[in-house]
Amino acid sequence: MAVITQDTPASGRYFRTRFLWAAAGILLAVLGLGLGLAPQRAQAAPYAAMVIDARTGEVLHSRNADTRLHPASLTKMMTLYIAFEAVRNGEITLDTKVKISRNAAAEPPSKLGLKSGQRIAFRYLIRAAAVKSANDAATAIGETLSGSEAAFTRRMNRTAKALGMTRTTFKNAHGLTASGHLSTASDMTTLGRHLLYDYPEYYNLFSRRSTNAGIREVPNTNRRLLAAYRGADGIKTGYTRAAGFNLVASAKRGNERIIATVFGGKSTTSRNAKVAELLDLGFRRAPSRAALRKPQRPAYQGAGNVVVAEADDGPAHAVAGKTIRVSGQVETSLRPKLRPGASESPVLVAALEEALQTPPAEAAAAETETETETETETGAAPEKTAPDQIENVQTVSADGALQRDAVRDSIAVALAEAEAEPAPLETAAAATLIAAVQQVPFAGLRPAARPASLALAEASPELEPVVVTRLSTSGGRYWGINVGLYSSRYQAEKVLLRTALSELETLDGSLRKVANTRRGFEANFLGMSQEQAELACRRLNARNVTCNPIGPS
User: Fold this and answer.
1) Catalytic: which of 76, 111, 171, 236?
2) Which long-range contacts (CB under 8 A, 24 or more apart) does 401-408 make?
3) Measured distance CA(28)–CA(24) in Å, rounded
4) Among 253, 286, 473, 513, which is disulfide-ready with 53 (CB 3.0 to 4.6 Å)?
């Protein structure tokens, strides 16, 4: 009889079975946990590249340049472009103290380490975003200029469109991966070229190996390429897992400047090597001499949704309103046309009256002189009218005098009308007048000589010449600004000099003048246009400097 044994808690088989199952469970748990913690191999980001001659914009190399990819921190180039634009147009100054929001302080690295509620000068936010690629600084810039990051993003997209970046869409100010936040190698190359030529006064930021960001010294994320490649002086790096290692680089050697862009590098080292290879390719293909054709700076987008056209000779100013396209072509002249016959009859009457009042001898002498002058100028004798018309009517010069043909035609019409409707009294008068005109040569409309007895007014005494050492007030430059009232001339001149040095862009070329009034010494800048005066005051007021425009007096 077979005996069936069962695993019971008391049996050894039972314990061995439980132990094996427990060990298997622990092993599976460890393996599963290990799989979860082990870094997954990220798929390689798509590669794209572009190389241009920065002087002309000519494309020297392109690969997948129009493919929409993740730009990562290359986005900050647009954030910085708008920051430079805002400073130039008086929206803000570099010394304006910015209060950091909770949203900006909470941005993930790379960051400067800003704290919520902290106040820091705007210039340090720019430095941190350009050199350190700090996300908190980039967000703070956007919120400061537009009130919120969302509003700033809309301005970024308006500016991108104005620059011709047709395949770029921004969703934030720093470049961290977001759905729809995409750009191309071509568009980022375009943006890098505009940064270089539209705001050259700030371009040196991108070549600094490190910089003072207010709260600490920060290194440049592009310092390896700057140190390793001859002539490299910018511009911006970027990295996220989705984007890979990106870089827009620029280098200058002699008269040549090349911009190279790479998307999707596998590492910092391999990306820099690829960029160096592309820069070398650009220098080989670019001509040694080429005419500089700077890109056209777009219209100032303003603090709101306002586009302000910029003149070539000065900064633009934001005004409320629409953008209106106006054709500059003049279709018709605005000068009124002469009324038919309006100028002929009065001239004819005056000519006839003068002819009748001129003595025969003087008229003959004038006739001879006029004919001589006409032959000298034209090389031919003047024309004569028909025998039954006035024979000696002369043509005077075109500078406002009588024309022979007009006079001749008018007289012919008058004679025809007189012959058509004869009247006893009018016929006799007309016959007398015609006889007088035919017998007395017409000497033209020459002004009478000034009488010799006319006494000339005594010449006024010669005035001492006034020497103007600076800009005159011609050409609409009748405006100025006042930067304060001071108790001494020395103090006013000191303030004028300090203000001129701190605001060179708008006050360069203006005349510094101290006016001594009963109240004290006024410090003024004169010889400005209204637009320059208003812009200068906006910029000075933004840094808490007293400024009031002075209109024409």
Assistant:
1) 76
2) 401/444, 401/445, 402/347, 402/351, 402/444, 402/445, 406/344, 406/347, 407/344, 407/347, 407/348, 407/351
3) 6
4) 286
> Which run of H or of E encompasses 238?
strand 232-240
The residue annotated as part of the active site, out of 110, 111, 132, 133, is 133
Cβ atoms 245, 222 nearer than 8 A: no
Helix residue ranges, H only, 133-267: 135-146, 149-163, 185-198, 223-228
Q: Is 397 labeled as catalytic in the residue annotation?
A: no
Lowest mean pLDDT among 284-288, 420-424, 425-429: 420-424
- Whole-number mean pLDDT of the chain? 77
Does 469 have pLDDT greater than 90? no
Q: Which residue has the higher pLDDT, 114 or 308?
A: 114
- Annotated catalytic, 474? no
Catalytic residue at 76?
yes
Query: Quick one: CA dihedral 301, 304, 306, 309, positive or negative?
Result: negative
Residues of the chain above pLDDT 70, percent: 60
Rounded-to-integer distance, Cα 69 and Cα 46, Å:
8
User: Higher pLDDT residue, 465 or 138?
Assistant: 138
Q: What is the pLDDT of residue 359?
A: 53
Rounded mean pLDDT, 370-395: 42
Burial (Cβ within 10 Å: 0-12, 13-18, ≥19) of residue 269: exposed
